[in-house]
Write a structure and sequence with these properties.
It is a single chain. The chain is mainly beta. Helices cover about 10% and strands about 35% of the residues. It has 2 helices and 10 strands. Strands 1, 2, 3, 4, 5, 6, 7, 8, 9 and 10 form a 10-stranded antiparallel sheet that branches. A hairpin with a 6-residue loop joins strand 2 and strand 3. The longest helix is centred in the first third of the chain and has 15 residues. The protein is globular, with a radius of gyration of 18 Å. The N and C termini lie far apart (about 40 Å).
């Protein structure tokens, strides 16, 4: 192998492994998202319901430090009761979603969150989310490392999709 080929392969591997960033990042940490159309979305991780999309606006939720994600959740989607090891905030950017605190999903007790709605969730607060006949776009702010732990592991979509258990 030539050094040029190795450098090219290494550069490609680094680009492929890099997170998808919104327009406007610079080396000093500044992030500018001039409008909603500038957010670049990718399929959500396997532990979120099929059709969920995520845009990593700032930071990396898998590493220590602050992050900002934008999440699109399709209509008629349920994110079963779960917790996060760190606090998070949810801000509804468009559409509506229902939110409920608790270890068991009870849609009769959920509250509608509409455009402009906000929720602060302390660490380890069990909650669930669901959409009805319209999709939602929300912004998640938090600090990493951040993850999602289902109360009932069988509710994790990555388990039913043949993913690691």
């Amino acid at each position: 192998m030539t050094r040029t080929w190795i450098r090219a392969a290494t550069a490609f591997a680094l680009l492929a492994a890099a997170p998808t960033w919104a327009a406007g990042h610079d080396d000093g940490g500044l992030v500018v998202l001039p409008d909603a159309a500038a957010a670049t979305y990718e399929p959500g991780p396997p532990n979120l319901p099929k059709g969920t999309q995520i845009s990593r606006v700032a930071g990396d939720p898998s590493k220590p430090g602050p992050f900002v994600l934008r999440v699109k959740v399709p209509a008629n989607t349920v994110i079963a009761p779960h917790t996060h090891a760190k606090p998070e905030t949810l801000t509804i950017l468009s559409g509506s979603i229902y939110h409920e605190h608790g270890r068991i999903l009870d849609k009769s007790k959920g509250s509608a969150l509409k455009t402009g709605g906000f929720v602060y969730l302390p660490e380890d607060m069990p909650h669930s989310l669901w959409t009805t006949d319209e999709p939602v776009e929300l912004q998640v702010n938090g600090s990493g490392p951040f993850g999602l732990d289902y109360i009932n592991p069988a509710d994790d979509p990555s388990r039913s999709a043949g993913g690691p258990g």
